[in-house]
């Protein structure tokens, strides 16, 4: 049983029926901005691979519509009465409360709680940013209704399952040339907000990409190595050699992107070096390039080829 389930409307008996009601808007239904039961959410996420993107976005849209509860109107009315009571203590308190954006919106005949459907513009191409936007809204609005909080958290889970944890076949990357794989990873770092420098093989020096970015505690310089392997495994000697390059050039962090076999123990060989296997690479590409990045590969590679041809 979910919380407040005794107040649920009786016009649905399954997740499909509930989704039809909230998406179509043909009937009133409660709850309407969160999936009613955790089990329903878990089942939906478990089978989300078969859901078309359009249907997933329809559900997210329904969960993020603007809302106004009867309680919001009631509270607003009571605070207005307090402000007009003439009692100094009540007037001062009510005036302060009515300055909040929620009650300003109600006063202007708008919905009390703004919708967040604009994050759909970030899907499927920028799911990580969509989640960050929703999480930022939760931080900025500590007094959100419980249903809206739960609904937003459910949207984050749905976005992760559909657009980030979706596994693209490794063959799409394996067929790239090594230099094209390097360009793809460089594009990834650019999407993550880094300034990048690609280092062609003739002057490699142990890194394929140099990525520079700003952090709260200062500037960061990251050396990146790209290992496009089909079946070859990453060897300890390669990681040690990369670590020597970091030490020699006084760089505090390195990242290895490897599509081949990576022994889990190897990831702990050097704390300065982060090693991403294909599963991790796919996750990062989905999060920052979108789950359909495979379709954009020719465009990404073509753009990089033109860029470096002109340099």
Describe the structure.
The protein has 311 residues and is α/β, with parallel strands linked by helices. It folds into two domains: 5-67 and 113-164, no CATH class; 171-309, 3-Layer(aba) Sandwich (Trna Endonuclease, Chain: A, domain 1), CATH 3.40.1350. It has helices at 15-24, 38-46, 53-63, 70-83, 88-97, 101-107, 127-140, 146-164, 171-174, 178-191, 236-248, 278-289, 293-309, and strands spanning 195-198, 209-215, 218-227, 253-258, 273-276. Strands 1-2-3-4-5 form a five-stranded mixed β-sheet. The mean pLDDT is 94.
Work out the radius of gyration: 25 Å
Q: What is the string of SSEs from the N terminus onward?
A: HHHHHHHHHHEEEHEEHH
Strand content: 5-15%
Going by CATH, the architecture of the largest domain would be 3-Layer(aba) Sandwich
């Amino acid at each position: 049983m979910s919380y407040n389930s005794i107040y649920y409307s009786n016009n649905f008996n399954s997740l499909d029926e509930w989704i039809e009601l909230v998406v179509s808007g043909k009937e009133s239904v409660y709850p309407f901005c969160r999936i009613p039961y955790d089990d329903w959410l878990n089942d939906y996420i478990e089978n989300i691979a078969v859901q078309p993107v359009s249907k997933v976005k329809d559900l997210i849209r329904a969960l993020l519509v603007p809302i106004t509860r009867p309680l919001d109107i009631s509270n607003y009315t009571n605070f207005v009465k307090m402000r007009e009571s003439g009692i100094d203590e009540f007037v001062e308190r009510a005036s302060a409360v009515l300055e909040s954006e929620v009650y300003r919106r109600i006063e202007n005949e708008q919905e009390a709680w703004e919708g967040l459907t604009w994050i759909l513009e970030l899907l499927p191409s920028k799911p990580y940013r969509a989640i960050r936007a929703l999480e930022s809204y939760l931080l900025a609005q500590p007094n959100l209704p419980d249903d809206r909080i739960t609904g937003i958290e459910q949207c984050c889970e749905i976005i992760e399952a559909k657009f980030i944890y979706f596994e693209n076949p490794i063959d799409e990357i394996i067929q790239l040339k090594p230099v094209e794989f390097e360009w793809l990873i460089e594009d990834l770092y650019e999407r993550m907000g880094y300034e990048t420098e690609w280092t062609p093989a003739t002057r490699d020096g142990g890194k394929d990409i140099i990525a520079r970015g700003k952090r709260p505690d200062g500037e960061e310089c990251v050396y990146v190595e790209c290992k496009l392997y089909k079946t070859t495994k990453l060897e300890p000697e390669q990681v040690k050699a990369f670590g020597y390059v970091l030490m020699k050039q006084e760089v505090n962090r390195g990242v290895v992107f490897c599509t081949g076999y990576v022994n889990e123990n190897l990831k702990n060989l050097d704390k300065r070096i982060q090693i991403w296997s294909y599963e991790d690479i796919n996750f990062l590409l989905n999060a920052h390039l979108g789950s359909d990045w495979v379709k954009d590969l020719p465009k990404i590679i073509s753009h990089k080829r033109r860029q470096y041809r002109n340099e």
